[in-house]
Design goal:
globular, two-stranded antiparallel sheet, Arc Repressor Mutant, subunit A, alpha+beta
C-alpha cells in the first residue's frame, strides 16, 4: 500500500525552519526523511517565492519566515503562512497587521 501524508515536504521544512531558524540542511534532511539535494531544492523554492529569507551568519545560515505571505493554492490563498504554522508548528497566530517576518 502506498504511503502518503497530509503535509508536503515544503510545509514540513517550513515548520522546522520556523521553530529552529538555524537548522542545517543535513538536519532538515534527516528530520523530513528526504535527501539533502531535495532539501536544497525546497529551500530554493521557498526563497524564490518569498516564503523565507536566508541570512549568512558566519559559516551557518539563518532562515526568516515571512508569516504574512499568502498560501499558494487557490483554495487557501486567503490564508497566511502564519496561520498555517500556528496549526502545524504550535506557533502563535500573527495577524496580517503584524510585522512582515518573525525571526
Amino acid at each position: 500500500m502506498k504511503q502518503w501524508t497530509f503535509i508536503t515536504h515544503h510545509a514540513a521544512i517550513l515548520v522546522l525552519m520556523a521553530v529552529n531558524p538555524r537548522i542545517t540542511g543535513r538536519d532538515l534532511s534527516a528530520r523530513v526523511g528526504i535527501t539533502e539535494r531535495t532539501v536544497r531544492t525546497i529551500i530554493s523554492d521557498l526563497e524564490q517565492e518569498g516564503y523565507i529569507a536566508k541570512t549568512r551568519e558566519g559559516r551557518t545560515v539563518a532562515y526568516t519566515v515571512n508569516y504574512n505571505h499568502a498560501l499558494r493554492h487557490p483554495t487557501q490563498s486567503d490564508k497566511t503562512v502564519g496561520q498555517l504554522l500556528s496549526v502545524l508548528g504550535g506557533l502563535p497566530f500573527l495577524p496580517p497587521s503584524a510585522s512582515e517576518s518573525r525571526p
